[in-house]
Amino acid sequence: MAGAKDTGTGHGKPRKAPPRRVVPALEVIRAGAYVVDEQGRIIDANTRAENLLGRRVESMAGQDAHDLLHRGPHGEQIPATRCAMRLAFHAGHPAQGESDYFARADGSVLAVSWFITPYTVNEDDTHTLVIFHPREQVQPAGPDAQQAEPMSELERLALLAETTTQVTATLNVDETLRRLVSLVLPRLADWAVIDLITEHDEVWRTSVVHVDGDRIVHREDLEGPMPPVPEESPMPLSRALRGVASAIAGPGTYRRAPDSGIAVEQRRLFEATGIHSAAIVPLRGTREILGALTLGRADKPGEFSTYDLPLIEDIARRASLALDNARLYQRQRAVAETMQNHLLPQMPRVPGLQMAVRYLPAPDASQVGGDWYDAFTLSDGATALAIGDVVGHDLEAAAGMAQLRNMLRAYAWSQQEPPSLIVERLDEAIMPITDVSMATLVFARLIKTDDGAWQLSWTNAGHPPPLLVTRTGLTEYLTDGHSLLLGTGLSRSRPDARILLPPGCTLLLYTDGLIEAPGRTLDEGLDRLRQHAAALAHRPLPSFADQLLRRVQPPGLDDVALLTLRTPTRADARTAESSDVAGRVP
Q1: CB neighbours (10 Å) of residue 476?
Q2: Distance set, CA 555 to CA 422, 505, 514, 515, 551 (Å)
């Protein structure tokens, strides 16, 4: 039994054996059995244990069970920190193992499966009972048969470093699991099974995969929902899913009468896959148990031992951290996505005009940011257009964006003033009222003149200039009406600009994520946008917006908001006018 606890014997002094306390009940057990005290020292053992180990109980009494008995498959000493029995002993919980080795008196090793459980002798004395069975060792078929070679310490460290690098480089749950599987197969096993606990405390067998040559193949028939985790089951997977302990298991572990639905599923797994040895470890997040990882060997030679568990637990710990972060990120994305859907408005219907909007979130942010667009009808019948960018790429920026947009709507609706005066009022209120530090904005009014033309008036507070594209592909950036961005605290009058929009033209309002990219100047980004917008001028407006985003290919470092507007052609205007006149004939 594990004996890392201080025995109080001093350095280098021989330990005096405690008086032997005979436990007659041990002889009733038809397997090897011994009892250890709170320090891990052997108190008593039955005759079956004496015969199996080739040791008299008098020679074992008082000795540290871990130091005396626990060995690796080749008789090597096992560090106390890598001993599954030791860890279970100190945890004070029942545990079992299927692939361990005890040292016999003649220097040979005995392959054993074991079970330990603590019990209280009296109010002040707690002991631990160890029961072990000899386990049939699988011998090579011949001199050329392959044995599983233990990994060197350098190989173990390299695998852990690679695990850290690979699984923490993504915030996607499925990709995290795929990378985990590719790291452990086929280096450690030829089967990998991942059971995850959902947000509703249900267990889902997410991945059952195995190596087939150089391919990794999913066994979808073994995947899917699992029965609930039993609260008291001592079976390895149940304990791992409760976060209690890791364990070594084999087909025999689940041949006994099942104590739960999960035990039935595990027996089905072993039968379907042919796994002869498995290591089962918990996946522990920072706040909760995420699930369990099972590595199995079917065609791969050799069996797992307690020597392998610390490495697999280290891999699982790193994967759990990455999985926990990915889950948290996906929850945040879901919240942000819902928030974004409520914050970005539907476009108003304006007779004669077409409008199309698009929003692309930055993939490395929270599915929401400070980029926004808006369009709404004003109290005097004009149509308001806005595009803006609040500094930041998170929920705080989105909240600031919502404040800014709502204030702009209120000022624009209540004050029938030019865009410049509306934005001046907004700028004055930003610092004392909102959480916005700085923002850029283009705000415009669009009205239909008496002769049927469409007039745009706008002001630009530090934002990229709108782009005008005619039906024939001529382009012009509307650079007039430009002034400082919002939130600088510098009170200056802002200019207005006006233009009559040509029939059939397309107007683009966009955020800087569409034109900025590492290694590209702003002028290069503007030229690229101009070139593709001109080439797409003949496309229907929804197709124009989609193809423009696809061709310009934003680099994905920033979110992108795009508002496009198209005026009617002269033919469309005459048709609409004729229909309107016909509709008014009595």
Answers
A1: 14
A2: 34, 28, 8, 9, 11
If DSSP states are collapsed to H, E and C, what string results for 311-376? Answer: HHHHHHHHHHHHHHHHHHHHHHHHHHHHHHHHHCCCCCCCCCCEEEEEEECCCCCCCCCCEEEEEE
Rounded distance between C-alpha atoms, residue 359 and residue 444, angstroms: 20
Q: Radius of gyration over alpha carbons of the chain, in Å?
A: 36
Of 279, 266, 277, which is closest to residue 312 (Cα–Cα)?
279
Contacts of 391 (CB under 8 A, 6+ apart): 370, 397, 436, 437, 438, 439
Q: What is the DSSP letter of 26?
A: G
Query: Does residue 7 contact residue 15 with C-beta atoms inside 8 Å?
Result: yes
Amino acid at 563: L
Name the token pair of 191: 């089967």
pTM value? 0.50
Please count the other Cβ atoms lying within 10 Å of the Cβ belonging to residue 349: 8
483 in Cβ contact with 492 (< 8 Å): yes
CA distance 401 to 513: 16
Placement of tokens 């994905």 in the chain: 556
Comparing CA positions, the residue from 561, 517, 548 lying closest to residue 361 is: 561
Residues 338, 348: Cα–Cα separation, whole Å: 21
Task: Write the single-letter amino acid at 209.
Answer: V
Distance, in Å, from the CA atom of 195 to the CA atom of 241, rounded to the nearest integer, reads: 8
> pLDDT by residue (tens digit) across 248-307?
998 888 888 889 999 999 999 999 999 999 999 999 988 889 999 999 999 888 888 877
User: What is d(CA 549, CA 473) in angstroms, rounded to the nearest whole number?
Assistant: 18
Going along 449-551, which residue ranges are E strands?
454-461, 467-469, 475-477, 482-483, 497-501, 506-510
Peptide bond into 186 cis (omega under 30): yes
CB atoms within 10 A of CB 480: 14
- Average pLDDT score over residue span 566-582: 64
